[in-house]
Amino acid sequence: MSRAEKLITFMRNLTAEVDFSKRWGVDYYLSAAGLDVDTNYRRLGLGTHLLLAREKIAQAYNISVTFTFFSSPASQKTAEKAGLRGFFEKRWNDIVDDKGNIVFPGLGDTYCKVMEKKFE
Asked: Could you tell me the maximum CA-CA distance found in the chain, to the nearest angstrom?
């Protein structure tokens, strides 16, 4: 299984573990599968602006909450700048397969986080 397939499988399992509709009492929400900015354009605030754009999308479609899975400390910091707050986190080294092997070796003691923002 490729690293991307492992990540998608993990995200599917995480989605099953946390019932987002039940958590917020909504029928629908705005979500994405992470945040990535081309290395040539990093440190310009683009990630923050992309996340802030969700508010206008949410208003246009009457959506009250957004959440996303953030896999790196840098993207988590960007999400915090955009007003998202973490509600679920898991240490990468604690994610193991059926045989007890670490699924994402090399990520050390960093965490993956699911972060959310409620819109008023």
From this structure: 46
